[in-house]
Every structure is written in C-alpha cells, then in structure tokens.
Amino acid sequence: MRNIILIASKELRSYLTSPMAYIVVCIFLLLSGLFFVLYLTNTSFNDTSIQGFIDPLSVFGVQAGGNILLLLFAVVLTMRTLAEEKKLGTLELLLTSPVRDSDVVLGKFLGSMGILTIMLILTFLYPLLLVILGDPDMGPIWTSYLGLFLLGTTALSVGIFASSLTANQIVAAVVSGAILFALWVIGIVAGNVPEGLQEVLNYMSISYHSVGFETGVIDTRDVIYYLSLTVLFLYFSIRSLEASRWS
User: Fold this and answer.
1) DSSP SS3 for 71
2) CA within 13 Å, CB half, 58
3) CB 3.0 to 4.6 Å from 161: which of 34, 85, 198, 233, for a disulfide?
4) Residue 134 — φ and ψ, nearest 5°?
5) What is the pLDDT along the chain (247 residues), one digit of tens a residue?
6) Is 171 exposed, middle or buried (0-12, 13-18, 19+ CB in 10 A)?
7) Measuring CA to CA, how many Å separate 47 from each of 37, 54, 137, 234?
8) Is the sign of the CA dihedral 127, 52, 80, 159 positive or negative?
C-alpha cells in the first residue's frame, strides 16, 4: 500500500507541475461551462439543471447520455502515464525496483484520479449558481456527479491500459479513444437491432448506464458495471506490464 501511495503522489505532482494538466483542466472547464450556459439559454432558464454539462449534445437536441467531454479529456490525461515512462526508459527502472506491477498501475490510476476529482470539484460552480439564482432539484445533480465520477474512473482505466501497450502517447490516445468510442456508440447502435441483442448491447454501453444517474436514480447494476469495467481494464494493464517485464 505504501508503494501505491508513493507512486500516486509522484504521479499527481507530475500532473501539477506540467502545463499540460492546467491546459486540459482549463479547456474542460471552458467547454463544459459553455455547454452549461447554452443549455439553460435554449430552455429559457426553465430547466434549472446541469444537463448541458452532463450531456453536451443535449444542447443540440440530441440525448446521447454520458459526458463526452469527460471521456475526451480522460484520454488526454492518461495517454502519458505509462507510455512516457516507456519512451524515457524509466519504466524498466521502475519495474526492477521492489514494487509490484499492480502497485505501478494502481499508483498511476490514483494519481490521475486525483486530477479527475479536482476537475469535477471545480465544476461545482454550476450547481452553486443554480442554487443562488433558482430552485434546482439537488437530488439528480448529486447523482449525476456520482455517475460522472464512475464514468471518469472507467475512462481513466481504459486510458492507462492503452498507455501500457505502447511508448507513443499519440498511439495510446488513439487506442483509448477508440475503445471508449466503441463502448459509447454501442448504446446508439442498440436502438436498431432486435430486442434480445438490444439488451446485451445496452448493458455493454457506458452511455446507457449513465442515464439513471442523470435522472436521480442510483441503480446498483450501473454502479457494478462501471466498477467492473474499471477493475477489468486495470487488470489488463497489470497483465500488459507483466508481459513487458518478460519481453
């Protein structure tokens, strides 16, 4: 546990001392704030919710579920986690030190999760404005944040897995983006297939499982889905590091 905490704190410090992290966070806040305001404007401020931030496509009348912005920026945040270590040759030093592969992966994951948490905390300004200027239903807002956090951790685990496969950060970003896009678009495709297959595709979709949180419902099946997917890709990352150790 001590090794995990040390690696996580080192990873978090590397984010906080890198201009890239500040650029990513600022752009995320700028875009999410823009979609938040546009959504309220389009509804003539009758809908005092953070729907525009949760589901940016709703601004254009498209209900897609899930925060696409969060997925995109999770990809950018994690593309360097292990790929950069491989490129600089420091991963070999790390793997030959008295730490387990699981310690490395979990430490990297917790470090990136720290940045994700900071990003979400900074968006608390949106519900705060709604409380000051209106009378929002806070239940769906808090459950939406829980859904965003679970979605974000899943995206981070996918990004770390992709980063463990290559020494090229761009390739890692493309691979993780492709995986997340596939998991997200499955929910859209599900509407055009037979009912039996539709249920299977919906369960596999990360966007489908976010809908309940947005409406104020915490379904244990949705929570288990996100946690299971996160654990699965972290396990894949550990196995990938083990393969690198012996290659």
Assistant:
1) helix
2) 23
3) 233
4) -150, -160
5) 788 888 888 888 888 888 888 888 888 888 888 888 887 777 665 666 677 677 666 554 445 555 788 888 888 888 888 888 777 777 767 667 777 888 888 999 999 999 999 989 998 888 888 888 777 778 888 888 898 899 999 999 999 999 988 888 899 999 999 999 888 888 777 666 777 777 777 788 888 888 788 788 888 999 999 999 999 999 999 998 888 766 6
6) middle
7) 11, 14, 10, 38
8) positive
The SS3 assignment for 121 reads helix
**Number of continuous H segments (helices) and E segments (strands) in the chain:** 13, 0
Ordered by start, the domain boundaries in the chain are 2-246
Burial environment of residue 43 by CB neighbours within 10 A (0 to 12, 13 to 18, 19 or more) = middle
Distance separating alpha carbons of residues 243 and 144, to the nearest angstrom: 38
For every residue of 177-210, DSSP letters joined together read HHHHHHHHHHHHHGGGS-HHHHHHHHHH-TTGGG
Question: Is-contact 230 154, C-beta < 8 A?
Answer: yes
Which residue type is seen at 140?
P
For 99, phi then psi, to 5°, come to: -130, 150
List the one residue out of 96, 44, 64, 19 whose CA is nearest residue 183.
Answer: 64
